[in-house]
Amino acid sequence: EIISYAKDLESDYEKEKYVHNKLIDMLEYEVDSDLNQSAYSALVNGVTVCAGYARAFQHIMIALGVPTYYVTGDANGEHAWNIIKLPDGYYNVDVTWNDNESNIYEYFNLDDDEFDSTHSRDELSLQLPECNGKDYRKEYLSIYGF
Q1: Staple partner for 96: which of 48, 53, 54, 143, CB 3.0–4.6 Å?
Q2: pLDDT tens digit sequence for 84-118
Q3: Is the pTM of this model over 0.85?
Q4: 15, 64 in Cβ contact below 8 A?
Q5: What pLDDT, on a 0 to 100 scale, did the predictor assign at position 145?
C-alpha cells in the first residue's frame, strides 16, 4: 500500500518524506515485539525496534528505486538507522528517533557532521558512503516549512 502510493510521487525526496511519515504514523516502538529485528515486525505487526524501522524504510525505498542503506552503530547503545541517496548526495535518516511527538524531522536528512554528535557507525557500516548532501538537509526543510 505504501509503495503503491509513493511510486507516483514526483521526486525521490517526496517519496522519502512520505515513507518516513507513514512509518512514523503506523509503527510503535516495542522492545519485546516478535521478530523485532526485521522489516516484517514493522510492516506486518506494526511494532518493532530500531532495526525494524530501518529495515522497513530500506525495503520500501529500494522497492521505489531509491538507493538506501541499513546502518548500524552506537547512539546511546546499539542502534540502527539509514543512509539515503538523493540527487545531490547521501544523507542520514533515523526514522526511530524521529518517531516522537515534538519534531519528527530532527534526525531527517542530516550530513555526517550534524549526525556524528549523536550517532557513530561501526563495523561494516564504516564502509558506507559519506553523507555530505546539502540541498535536502533539515535546515532547508525548516526554512521552507516542510
Answers
A1: 53
A2: 999 999 999 999 999 987 778 899 999 999 999 99
A3: yes
A4: yes
A5: 52
Long-range contacts of 17-23 (CB under 8 A, 24+ apart): 17/146, 19/57, 19/60, 19/61, 19/64, 20/57, 20/93, 20/95, 20/98, 20/104, 20/108, 21/104, 23/53, 23/56, 23/57, 23/60, 23/95, 23/99
The span from the first CA to the last CA of the chain, in angstroms, equals: 23
Question: Phi-psi category of 109—alpha, beta or left, where left has phi over 0 and alpha has psi -120 to 50?
Answer: left
Nearest 5°: the CA angle 11, 17, 19 is 100
Average pLDDT on 59-83 reads: 97
Residue with cell 541499513: 70
Query: Using CA atoms, how far apart are residues 20 and 24, in angstroms rounded to an integer?
Result: 6
Residue 50 · residue 79 · CB < 8 Å: yes
